[in-house]
C-alpha cells in the first residue's frame, strides 16, 4: 500500500463504505511479496470473510489462493491486476494499453506529428510497465514522423531515473516530449530538464492524475507537467461491485475504467470537482460523527427515562422530572431527523455527480467505437475498390497484350489504337496502385526497407524513362549531378514513386519546347541528399499553393488534362515516411521547382539486407510499339488431344471464359463458377492442376486451397491462385494456405501458361521420386505427407489381398471409400501408372522376397501371390526383371553342402 496511488485506492474504498456502516473493511498489506499475499488470503478465508478484494502483486503465485476462495464459495473481486486463471467473480481496473496509446496521441498533437520523444518506464517486469510501453509504441506507429530516441527505467521513483535521463537528454538534444509512466517520475524528469536549462523546450506527460499537493493535477496546474493521463485507482468502483455481489444484485463481471488526458484545458474543472468531493466527504464524516453522538445520547437518555418511570411508581414528585426528560428526548429525535435528511440530500448529490461522470465516459467510449468503425469501413472500401478494378483490367490488358504480340495482320491504325488501349489500361492500374499506397500510408502499413546505393544512378534510370516522351514534345531534359556518385541509404520502391510522380507532373505542365532540369547534390553538412525537379511551366497560383499536397485536390490546371489529385499528396506522404521533406517554390508564368530532401543515413530498424523490388510504371505519353513476335499457334478446336486436365474456378464469367480459352490450347479444361462447386468437381475429377480465384462468394479461394490440401484425394494437385489482392501479407497468406503459385491481376496469359507447364513438370518429377520409393527393397512407403500416406494405405490394402486371383480395381477403390475413376486418376497423378500395373508391380516385388525361401516351390510362390498359373507368373517375372524365377533363385540361394 506504499505510494499515493495505492493510498488513493484505499481512500476510495473507505469513501464508498462511509455510506454503508453495516459493512466492515479489513485491509492487509503484503508489502510487494506474493508469498505473503498468498498466506494472507488463506488467513482471511480461515477467519470467515464474506468477500475478498485482491490486487495481485504477481499473477501466477497468487492464482491458487484465489481459486481456493472461489471453490469455497467466497466471491473474489480482482482490482487493478488480473490472476492467471479465469476463476474470479469480477474485475475492476484501468486499461494500461489505452493509457499508453492516449499518451502517444497527445504527444503527436503536441509535436504536430513530427519530432522526437523519450520514455521513462516503471519497474521492469511489471505488467503496468509492459502494457503502457506497448500501448505507447503502438500509438506512435500511426505517426511516421515521430521517433522515440530511447527509454529510461525509473522504477516508479523520481530519484533513480535522474542520472540515466540526464545522460539520454544530453545525447539527444532534439527531444521535446517525455512520456513518464507515473506523475512522480514525470516530476523528476522536469527537474532534470530544469538542471539542463531545457524546462521550457521539453514537455512532460505523466500518468495517474491524482489530486493532492505534489500529485498529477497539482503538477499540471503549476506547469511542471504538460499533461497527466488519468489512471483511476478504482477503489469506489471495486467496493460498489463488491456490495452488489454481496446483496445478490446485478453486476458487471468486467469493469474496465476509462481514461482522459488532464491538461490546461480541464485541470481547473477537475481540481474544483475533486475539492468539492473532498469537502462533501468531510461533511458526511462530520455528520456521521454527530449522528453517532446523538444516537449515543439518545440511548443514554432512554435509559434515564426508564429509570424515571420506575421511580415514578414510588414517588409522584419525580413526575415533573420524567416529563422534562420526555420533552428533551422529543427534541433530540427532531434534530436527528433533520440530520438524516441532510445526509440523504448529500448522498443524492454524490450519486447524481457519479451518474454524470459515467455518462461522459460512455460518450467517450461511443466516440472511440465509432472512430474504429469508420476506419474499418475505409479499409473495406479500398480493398473492395481495388479488387473490382483489377478484375476488368485483367480482361482488358490480357487480350490486348496477346493481340499486339501474336497478330501480324493488324493494320497500322489498329496497332496504334491497341497501343492506346494498353497505355491507358496501364495508367488505370497505376492509379489503383496509388490508391492502395494511400491506404497503406493512412493505416501505417507501409514500411521503409532501405539499402545502400548510388542515388545518382537510381534517379538517372528514372529520368531515362521520360527521355522519349519528352523528345516527342520537344521538351529538353537536363540531368545535373554535383558528383558522379552520391551514396546513401534509401528505399528504391518508395523513392521511385516519388520521383516518377514529380517528373510526370513536370512533363504534364511544361509546354512544348520547354525545359525540365533535374539536379542532385549533398547538403553542405553532408548529412542529407537533395533532388530537385524544376520546370518552365505556368507555375502554381497563390490559391492552389496551400492545397497542392492535399489528397484528391485538383486546382486550376488550365488547358492541361485534369489529373487524379493523388500524385503530389502521395509523393509527400512517401517522402515523410522516408524521414525526408518535400518542398516547392513557384513563380506564376515562369515555372515550379520541387525539392526532395532525404537523410543520407537511416536508423538500423529501417535498413534491409535485401534490396527492394521497385515498381515499373507506364507513361501516358505516346511510345513506339514493340516488335512483332512470332504468332501463337491457334487451337484447332475447343479441346486438345492432351490427357492433362485443368480445373478453373472463377466467379467472374468473363475471366472464367478467358482463362478456359487460353488453357484449352494445351490442356483439357473444366470450369466452375463458385468455390463449393469447384471443390466438388476437384474431388470427383481429380484434375492435374487447379486455377482458382481468391475473392469468391461462399467458399473463398483460400478456403478451397485449404480443403484441397487437407483431402488426401486432392492433396497432390498443384494450385494456382489468381487475385487482385497484391499486398505482401496477403501473398504470404495464400502461400501459407498451400497454394503453389500466387498471381495478381492483371496477369500475363503467356506467363500463366508457362507457370502451369512448370508446375506440371515438377509434378512429373515428384511422381518419379515416389516410384523410386516403391523399390524392390522397400515394399511400403513411410507416411510423411498426404501422398505418401495414400500410397501406404493403398499398398497395405493390396498386400492384404495378394492371394486373391480376382483382386480388381473396384475392390480396392471400395476399400478406400472412393470411386474407380477417382482411384485411377489419383494413382496416375502420384505415380504416373495405372492401378493394375501397380498391383502387378507389388506382387512381383513380393515374389523376389518369397523366392529367397527355399522351402517354397515356384508354384507355391505363384499361387501365394494370386497369379492364375505358374506359367503366367514366370512370364510376368521375366518380363519385369529379364530373368526367370528359377534363374533368380539359383543366383541368390547358395546350394547346401
Automatic annotation (TrEMBL):
Top-level taxon: Bacteria
Catalytic EC class: transferase
Keywords, in A-Z order: Coiled coil, DNA-binding, Membrane, Phosphoprotein, Transcription, Transcription regulation, Transmembrane, Transmembrane helix
Residue stretches spanning the membrane: 304-323
Chain ranges of the HTH araC/xylS-type domain: 792-891
Keyword Phosphoprotein recorded: yes
Coiled-coil stretches noted in the UniProt entry, renumbered to this chain: 343-374
Entry EC number(s): 2.7.13.3
Residue stretches making up the Histidine kinase domain: 384-602
Pfam family, one: Peripla_BP_4
InterPro entries the record matches: CheY-like_superfamily, HATPase_C_sf, HATPase_dom, His_kinase_dom, HisK_dim/P_dom, HisK_dim/P_sf, Homeodomain-like_sf, HTH_AraC
Modified residues (4-aspartylphosphate): 693
Response regulatory domain mapped to chain residues: 645-760
GO molecular function: DNA-binding transcription factor activity; phosphorelay sensor kinase activity; sequence-specific DNA binding
Catalyzed reactions per annotation: ATP + protein L-histidine = ADP + protein N-phospho-L-histidine
Gene3D superfamilies on file: 1.10.287.130, 3.40.50.2300, Histidine kinase-like ATPase, C-terminal domain, Homeodomain-like
Name of this chain's protein: histidine kinase
Species this chain originates from: Hymenobacter lutimineralis
